[in-house]
Design brief:
The complex is a heterodimer. Chain A is mainly α. Helix content of chain A is about 65%, strand content about 0%. Chain A has one domain. Chain A has helices at about 5-25, 35-40, 45-75, 80-105, 135-155. In chain A, α1 crosses α3. The longest helix of chain A is centred in the middle third of the chain and has 30 residues, at about 45-75. Chain B has 2 domains: about 5-195, Distorted Sandwich (Beta-galactosidase, Chain A, domain 5); about 225-600, Glycosyltransferase. Chain B is built from 15 helices and 28 strands. In chain B, the strands form 7 sheets. Chain B has a 15-stranded antiparallel beta sheet that branches. A 3-stranded antiparallel beta sheet of chain B has the order 26-27-28. In chain B, α5 packs antiparallel against α6, α5 (about 275-285) runs parallel beside α7 (about 350-365) and α7 (about 350-365) runs parallel beside α9 (about 405-425). The longest helix of chain B is centred in the last third of the chain and has 19 residues, at about 405-425. The chains are: A mainly alpha, B alpha+beta.
Chain lengths: ~160, ~625
């Protein structure tokens, strides 16, 4: 495995993914803020959570890109279209299974079955994260396709 | 079909059901407040119900088990008496770690209190507003399974249940004194479904009583009409959607403002115009968790449209479903059309920013802190108000007859800017263009004082240069725009009483061709009592009026949106959060005045003196 290539393109992919998600938020396409969601696992402070969350997100990005790299090696090639394909599977997993697991993992997130006790918690994302806006799945899909495309096109054996 | 006021409500802070005095559940939407109905007999006898009552002629009464949302319907027949106890199980999040509960469930416990009574249950599901496909299958000891597009429902009971014509589920039994029965209906979107607890449902009943009594013990209110205030708090809690903190206006759709009329709207959504009044009521009663969750929902679920705010949102801050008419439903006593979804979200209501900012000010008064993102959001609201306040809008009552320059909207624009400036002065809010906000605030004040005051009527009127009064002018004092004992406010109150009085202390919201024949408006009537309590009248006047108005609640203490001034019964969607909020706020204000405190404190503490709750 080419470690420096993995670290470089994993970083670039994560930054682009984060930028697309942040841009989607700015354009009011979605309310989903991945760094905030991850950061509130560690701190309730909204401002601190975003910074902590971004660092965690970056580490996650490297961890996930390692799976992409493993797949490239298993298939004996790294191409943009292969990266795109893995990105599609990745986004589909995040939107369906991942979003369902999240309330169980996240200490400050309510589930769809929460209640009648009412406390200030993060709302659950719901199926395809639709609770954060009906265009959320599109944003997440595009961001992950870009992540996969960058890794596939950039990674060198 | 049974009348609106003959109902109690049960729920679990995610969904609610109406139970009539005849023991019939005739309104239920699962899994969410705004999901399609499973029982909709309140809107059409063919739209599904679940009846449970004696087979012989009976009389009946309803009450809640004190301090809970557990509903009892007591039946008397010539042969004996029986009580049906209805509830959706409620347990704390901690108890959920130990109990395997169904996603949604209704439990109905039956106990014979004397003599002999034969009781019959008829469960007739009609999912999808009576348009959805369903299939009923007997699964033996595992109950009767109802397969629908929305999920699986399972009906069980301690008597044999029979499927009749593939359309309904029936069970019947003769009870003698001391005999007990149970029936249950669970809903599951996930498989495997959790089955109803069988004979141990009595234990779930005890859990539920304990949960609600524990919840109500947090109530910090010791003023007049305590029982009515407690019931209002419990009813309001049932309208909170716990996973997000949103508060829906009512759990029903298309219960008419006038029987036979077409003013039938879907209220299973969250109106921002209710924000400030609701937050003040929740904080005032001591339910800080609910109030903070609601403020959080207000600020963060509405982000996709900010700085513009929609009039209403669904429980997750998305646009409500597109409004459509269900022509196959006959409507409540022929009140058609039945509508689902709500098109009012496309309206422009300039008051909503004032409502939201005022809700945030309540939050800060209670020790809440604003983070940077919220500060930026609030500044953008102020900027939006400065840019748009001169435009006509639809106003608080959402008439569909066009835009006008509404006085109430302008006052709330003033409220938004005034609160932002106060928050800034006290060090809670940075980065606001002080001079611009202050200049605009003062211009709005001058506009209201000169153009919304009608010297001929000697009252603040509903719109600039207008000739009619509107009960929302009573809030001018509530928001601190004008002292309650000022001459203008006293004259306005007198004029509103004269022109909008419906008798018995009730008020219409306005008189307009937009809603001919509608009943008196619940919250407007309570605004009248609160205005007196604020200082517009004597304590005795305020207390007398509040007591009179509380007397119009139904048998179990619930209010709809409106009150029929002749029959003194509920009209409109039911139960209505806004009306209960009005009751609570009037009682809080009166209670403060009785104790010699400022009836409605609007000051904002300095940032360094706050308690320290994080936003």
């Amino acid at each position: 495995m080419n470690t420096s290539s993995w670290l470089l393109w994993g970083f670039v992919g994560t930054v682009v993914l984060t930028t697309i998600m942040a841009g989607s938020q700015g354009m009011r396409l979605t309310r989903m803020n991945i760094p905030f969601m991850l950061g509130t696992m560690f701190t309730p402070s909204r401002d601190r959570a975003k910074l902590v969350g971004f660092l965690v997100h970056l580490l996650n990005g490297w961890a996930f890109s390692l799976v992409y790299v493993a797949a490239f090696h298993a298939l004996g090639r790294a191409t943009w279209w292969l990266g795109l394909g893995i990105g599609f599977v990745h986004a589909s997993f995040v939107l369906t299974a991942g979003m369902q697991f999240l309330p169980g993992l996240h200490p400050r997130m309510a589930s769809e079955h929460h209640g009648p006790t009412v406390v200030r918690q993060l709302e659950p994302p719901g199926f395809l994260a639709l609770n954060y806006g009906v265009r959320t799945p599109v944003s997440v899909l595009i961001a992950h396709l870009a992540f996969g495309w960058i890794l596939g096109a950039g990674y060198r054996f | 079909m049974e009348e609106i006021h003959d109902h109690g409500v049960i729920g679990n802070c995610r969904s609610a059901a109406l139970v009539s005095r005849r023991g019939t559940i005739d309104w239920l939407c699962w899994p969410r407040f705004d999901s399609p109905s499973i029982f909709g007999a309140l809107l059409d006898d063919r739209a599904g119900h679940w009846s449970l009552h004696p087979t012989a002629p009976f009389s009946s009464r309803q009450r809640y088990v004190p301090g809970t949302n557990v509903l009892e319907t007591r039946f008397r027949t010539a042969g004996g008496s029986v009580v049906v106890t209805d509830f959706m199980p409620a347990v704390s999040e901690e108890e959920k770690h130990e109990l395997l509960l169904a996603e949604h469930e209704i439990l109905r416990l039956v106990r014979c209190e004397g003599g002999e009574v034969e009781i019959e249950s008829v469960l007739r599901p009609r999912p999808g507003y009576a348009q959805g496909a369903f299939r009923i299958r007997d699964a033996g000891k595992l109950g009767v399974r109802i397969h629908t597009d929305q999920g699986l429902m399972i009906a069980r009971g301690s008597v044999p249940l029979a499927i009749v014509d593939g359309e309904e589920i029936r069970g019947r039994k003769l009870l003698r004194e001391g005999d007990e029965l149970y029936f249950s209906l669970v809903f599951a979107a996930d498989a495997p479904a959790v089955l109803a607890p069988g004979e141990s449902c009595r234990k779930l009943y005890e859990h539920t009583l304990r949960f609600w009594r524990g919840w109500v013990s947090k109530l910090r209110y010791h003023g007049p009409m305590r029982e009515a205030v407690e019931r209002s708090a419990l009813a309001l809690e049932l309208l909170v959607y716990a996973p997000s903190g949103a508060v829906v206006a009512a759990p029903t759709t298309s219960l008419p403002e006038r029987v036979g009329g077409d003013l039938n709207w879907d209220y299973r959504y969250c109106w921002l115009r209710d924000a400030s009044l609701t937050v003040r009521a929740l904080f005032g009663l001591g339910f800080d968790d609910e109030a903070e969750a609601f403020v959080s929902w207000l600020l963060h679920s509405t982000r996709l449209t900010q700085p513009r705010l929609r009039v209403l949102y669904d429980v997750y801050g998305n646009a409500p479903a597109r409004e459509r008419e269900l022509d196959h439903l006959g409507g409540y006593f022929g009140s058609r059309p039945v509508r689902v979804g709500n098109a009012a979200d496309e309206q422009l209501q300039l008051d909503v920013h004032g409502e939201v900012v005022d809700a945030v000010a309540h939050f800060v008064r209670r020790g809440g802190r604003l983070d940077l993102e919220t500060e930026r959001m609030l500044v953008s609201f102020g900027d939006y108000v400065c840019r748009r306040w001169t435009e006509p809008d639809e106003g608080i009552w959402e008439p569909r007859s066009g835009r006008r320059h509404h006085t109430h909207s302008l006052v709330l624009c003033w409220v938004a800017l005034d609160n932002l400036l106060r928050l800034h002065d006290q060090g809670h809010l940075a980065g606001i263009p002080v001079e611009r906000f202050a200049r605009t605030r003062d211009r709005i004040r001058r506009e209201v004082e000169t153009r919304a005051w009608n010297p001929r009527l000697r009252a603040y009127v509903s719109e600039l240069e207008g000739e009619t009064v509107d009960a929302s002018a009573l809030l001018i004092a509530w928001y601190g725009f004008e002292p309650p004992d000022s001459e203008r406010m006293r004259l306005t109150y007198a004029r509103i009483r004269e022109e909008l009085g419906a008798g018995g202390g009730l008020l219409y919201r306005y008189r307009s061709a937009d809603s001919p024949g509608e009943a008196a408006f619940g919250i407007c009537s309570f605004w009248g009592a609160e205005y007196l309590a604020l200082g517009g009248g004597s304590v005795e006047e305020a207390q007398d009026l509040l007591e009179t108005l509380c007397g119009y609640a139904n048998e179990v203490g619930l209010f709809g949106e409106e009150i029929d001034p002749v029959r003194r019964v509920a009209a409109g969607n039911f139960p209505q959060a806004f009306t209960h909020v009005g009751l609570v706020n009037a009682a809080l204000t009166l209670s403060h005045r009785l104790r010699g405190r400022t009836p409605h404190h609007r000051g904002i503490p300095a940032a360094d003196s706050e308690g320290g709750a994080a936003s």
